[in-house]
Write a structure and sequence with these properties.
With 150 residues, the chain is mostly beta strands. The chain has a single domain, classed as Immunoglobulin-like. Helix content is 10%, strand content 48%. The strands form 2 sheets. Strands 1, 3, 5, 6, 8 and 9 form a 6-stranded mixed beta sheet that branches. Strands 2-4-7 form a 3-stranded antiparallel beta sheet, with no helix packed on it. Strand 8 and strand 9 form a beta hairpin. It is elongated, with a radius of gyration of 17 Å. The relative contact order is 0.26. Its main location: secreted. It is found in: Secreted.
């Protein structure tokens, strides 16, 4: 039996939707905002396999509960409950897709890159990503498991 064009279209649509699934994440203290969605691309499965020498796209959709003139990102690799700072190319949230000043009640798409340097060790860890407002309070904080690999 040959599948109908509609069945093929539905199957392809379901496969595409599965690839674009938002990540499961842990909210680690979003106070001044609420996270609606976290996407890391490419990361089809968890833990995310982060290949050395590759850059990953980060997209976080969140709603602000406060007004803020600016925002700053801090990223960590968490190992054995110790946060090790992880440099990113652009820590200024206002240069990462967020139109500043941030308005209370508005939703924003925060966009950034996570470069995985070739000198990083092959290791499993937790990526912790924070975005703080101009009072150093958490607009959002999320964690996901990753594995750095060659």
């Amino acid at each position: 039996m040959v599948p109908s064009p509609l069945a093929l279209l539905l199957a392809l649509g379901a496969a595409a939707a599965a690839l674009a699934e938002p990540l499961r994440f842990v909210d680690c203290g979003s106070i001044d905002g609420s996270i609606q969605e976290v996407n890391v691309s490419p990361c089809p499965t968890q833990p995310c396999l982060l290949h050395k020498g590759t850059s990953y796209s980060i997209n976080v959709t969140f709603a602000s509960k406060i007004e803020s003139q600016g925002s700053k990102a801090r990223v960590y690799g968490e190992m054995l409950h110790v946060d090790i700072p992880f440099p990113i190319p652009e820590p200024d949230g206002c240069k990462s897709g967020i139109q500043c000043p941030i308005q209370k009640g508005h939703s924003y798409s925060y966009l950034n890159k996570l470069p995985v340097k070739s000198e990083y060790p092959n290791i499993k860890l937790i990526v912790k990503w924070e975005l703080v407002d101009d009072q150093d309070q958490m607009l959002f904080c999320w964690k996901i498991p990753v594995q750095i690999t060659s």
